[in-house]
Amino acid sequence: MSLIVQKYGGTSVGSPERILNVAKRVIATQEAGHQVVVVVSAMSGVTDGLIKLAKQVSQNPAEREMDVLLATGEQTTIALTAMAIHGLGKRAISLTGAQAGIITDGVHTKAKIANITPKQVHDYLKKEHIVIIAGFQGETSDGRITTLGRGGSDLTAIAIAAAIKADRCQIFTDVDGVYTCDPRIVPSARKIDAISYDEMLEMASSGSKVMQSRSVEFAKKFGVIFEVRSSFNNNPGTIVQEETEDMENVVVRGVSIEKNQAKVTIRQVPDRPGTAARIFSALAAANVIIDMIVQSDSVGDTNDISFTLSKDELPRTQKAIEAAMKEIAAKELVTQEGIAKLSIVGIGMRSHSGVAAKLFECLSQGGINIQMISTSEIKTAVIIDEAKIDEAAKLAHEAFGLSGKA
């Protein structure tokens, strides 16, 4: 008898009918001879509705109380899922994150898991219950409810799988798996059968919406192999695991895009030790997440520093670095919206040359100008005009032959 953790996202439990569908899938898994632990998200739209309610009573609701409020979304789903399973004649028990033994740090709205003691989970599994756990939440050591932020339910599932030493972890969503590119943009995109943790991390950080990078990081750290698959059919999904030798035969695994980006350029920054540190320390203190960074060659005794970030972060960024700019005597702050990032990812890039050149060439032939370039061992990313990003994705996808079997 194997132990399986299954996670169902908000779309998969988005209505009573879909919750019943999940209940039937879970029961079928148990009847196939497995112990089953299920992690669920709030029903689609519920979390946004709760946030809207909070804003109607307070423009700046306390983060502690927001966690108390938002945690009710997943608690609604666990209860309904357990009821659906009961109605189909099977035993199930719903547990909040705290009841499942998930202990977090004290950072409200974006807590990190510190420890899991899943005693109740094991106890109910021994009694042949299907255990339904609320994703996205936990509690501090002193009993305060916390939520885990974006991708929190995926993180819960992978963390629980690690804690109970599950044989399999399945992330059910509204897509069949991880694709070579977003099929809505590149219709010829193909599902990837298997992908390494590192490739999945790069794709997640480069705009792929299938998984949040923190969940993949946790899986890599604890060696949790997981499968991304659809809750609406029985098709095999994409296995995410440690890399294997044959994975390097595929030079580029996929193409990711990220829209709604912005570029910030600080002009005529004095070329002396500590100036860059002062700028980026100010941004870190304001919790601004930076992506690509480029520093130009010095002209005289100054240089320009450019970096990219989410467009939503611009107001906070400008406010955060005003004082730093005055302190270091930088001359000007220039911002640019309407840009997007395209990334090609593949562990095979480590052992194959000419990958970046091929990307640049195909974009050039399409008349697409590159504004910034960033590389890592298994990724090359470029910043281009957002109006050209869909066309660029198609060109890159075609250039690297990703329309065949992935």
- What is the spatial order of strands in the main beta sheet? 3-6-2-1-9-11-12-10
How does the helix and strand content classify structurally? Answer: alpha/beta
- Helix fraction, binned, reads 25-40%
Largest sheet: 8 strands, mixed
Number of helical segments with 4 or more residues: 11
- According to DSSP, the number of beta strands is 18
Task: Offer a few descriptive terms.
406 residues, 8-stranded mixed β-sheet, 6-stranded antiparallel β-sheet, 11 helices, globular
Task: Describe this protein's structure.
There is one protein chain. By secondary structure, the protein is α/β, with parallel strands linked by helices. It is 34% helix and 26% strand. The protein contains eleven helices and 18 strands. The strands form four sheets. An eight-stranded mixed β-sheet has the order 3-6-2-1-9-11-12-10, with helices on both faces. A six-stranded antiparallel β-sheet has the order 14-15-13-16-18-17. A two-stranded antiparallel ribbon has the order 4-5. Strand 1, helix 1 and strand 2 form a beta-alpha-beta unit. The relative contact order is 0.11.
